[in-house]
Amino acid sequence: MNRHASLTRTARNLAVAGALSAALLPVSAAPATAAACDAAAAARAPSSSNDVASRNAVICLINAQRTQRGLPALTTNQALTTAAQQHSAAAVQLKWWGPGKDSHRNPQTGSTPQSRIKAAGYCPNPRSWAVAEITYTGWGGSGTPNAAVNWWMNVSTWGHRQIILDPSMREIGAWAQPGSADRAGAGASQAGTYVVTFGRCQQ
């Protein structure tokens, strides 16, 4: 069983990647959060037969974290979803994620969250915009949407929680890919890889 998660943020065409320094206090997810979403889908790793349900569960769990704190729910955006889908598929195929690795830069193409999101057609000719990306891969008991969102919200100290709860973000794209993006999880059961992209666009 293993976990790997990372994040990056881009604002006004300026890439700011890496850890965000903040003192994070672990906060357990409220039981009501999972109850409002598809509990069965949230507790299963994605597969070819349930990847849509897994993706919807991730979005639902993230929006539940926001709304229970008085923040607006994020609206699904197709361009952000496309960027997340392409990156998660490449990650599982190439398996370059892992401790000390940059999960946001594709080693073959050199693509970054900003370049992928832009190429997918998000927010053309903006007056101002901001985007962010978070990633997660796990297997065994750690490949589920619940595990991914719990890691981002309650375990990671790298700023994932701040991105999920960023009040300026308005849109979301998420993908749940079967399989591990880390070679350590290659062939492991119940593996899942998650990429979630966030955006704000003013045109």
TrEMBL record:
The keyword Signal applies. Residues 1-29 form the signal peptide. The lineage of its organism: Bacteria, Bacillati, Actinomycetota, Actinomycetes, Kitasatosporales. It holds the Pfam family CAP. The keyword Kinase does not apply. Transmembrane segments: none annotated. Residues 106-115 have a biased composition (Polar residues). Residues 98-118 are annotated as: Disordered. Keywords: Signal. This is SCP domain-containing protein. It comes from Streptomyces virginiae (Streptomyces cinnamonensis). Residues 61-184 form the SCP domain.
